[in-house]
Specification:
Layout: H1 25-36, H2 42-117, H3 123-138, E1 141-144, E2 156-164, E3 171-177, E4 179-182, E5 185-188, E6 190-197, H4 204-209, H5 213-216
Parallel strand pairs: 2-6
Antiparallel strand pairs: 1-4, 3-6, 4-5
Length: 223
């Protein structure tokens, strides 16, 4: 029978874990190498994320500022257009009111003109008439219409018509009532008598140009 040698029956127990952990002493060194090789720092990554968020907020603020600036510019343009429109309407209303007032005074001015032509504008009546004419002139009323000027249907109203051999175009030969305007606006056309060239009559210039050579030389030669 075989004898067992005392002291060799049990195998020595080996610790299941080393003092360096399950991964062994090389794992911690590998982590140190990886971090040294450029692994991201958590604090730096958090800073980058915060910077990106701030940039996004800044972009939103800039976009909102641009929108508000555009709205303000649009409102300012609308206000300027409104002011110009109100000013234009105000001037138009004023011109219409002045034109209506002066139109009602035209018969009085016609009476003053006829009295002046007949020598009846004397004394206190003359002073009042001249004062009235001064006032309406300051309000912008202007008189127009003179004898001898060409007839213009835009500013003249022909009440009488005749023919004359000494005119080359339709001409105002008599002013029956003067016309009046305010600026470029005619409130009453000048009422006139017009004369046209005689039908079939040859203008003086053409008649002189049409003289025969014999007439220019004093007549035909006598043989």
């Amino acid at each position: 029978m075989t004898e067992e040698t005392p002291g060799f029956d049990e195998q020595p127990e080996v610790p299941s874990s080393s003092p360096f952990g399950e991964e062994g002493p090389g794992t911690e060194a590998a982590d140190d190498v990886a971090q040294a090789a450029g692994s991201p720092d958590p604090a730096a990554a958090a800073g980058d994320i915060q910077q990106v968020g701030l940039q996004a907020q800044l972009d939103q603020v800039r976009m909102a500022l641009n929108e508000r600036t555009a709205d303000l510019q649009r409102l300012q343009a609308e206000y300027q257009n409104y002011r110009r429109r109100v000013e234009r309407d105000r001037i138009t209303v004023k011109e219409v009111a002045v034109a209506n007032l002066l139109t009602d005074l035209l018969p009085v001015l016609d009476d003053i003109g006829r009295a002046r032509e007949h020598g009846e504008l004397v004394g206190g009546f003359k002073s009042v008439a001249e004062s009235l004419e001064t006032v309406v002139a300051k309000m912008g009323l202007m008189q127009f219409g003179k004898e001898g000027e060409p007839f213009d249907p835009l500013v003249h109203e022909a009440l009488m018509h005749s023919y004359a051999p000494d005119v080359t175009e339709t001409t105002c030969v008599s002013i029956l009532q003067p016309g009046y305007r305010i600026g470029e606006r005619t409130i009453r056309p000048a009422r006139v008598a017009v004369a046209e060239p005689q039908p079939g009559a040859q203008p003086k210039g053409e008649a002189q140009d049409g003289a025969t050579p014999d007439e220019e030389n004093g007549g035909p030669e006598q043989g």
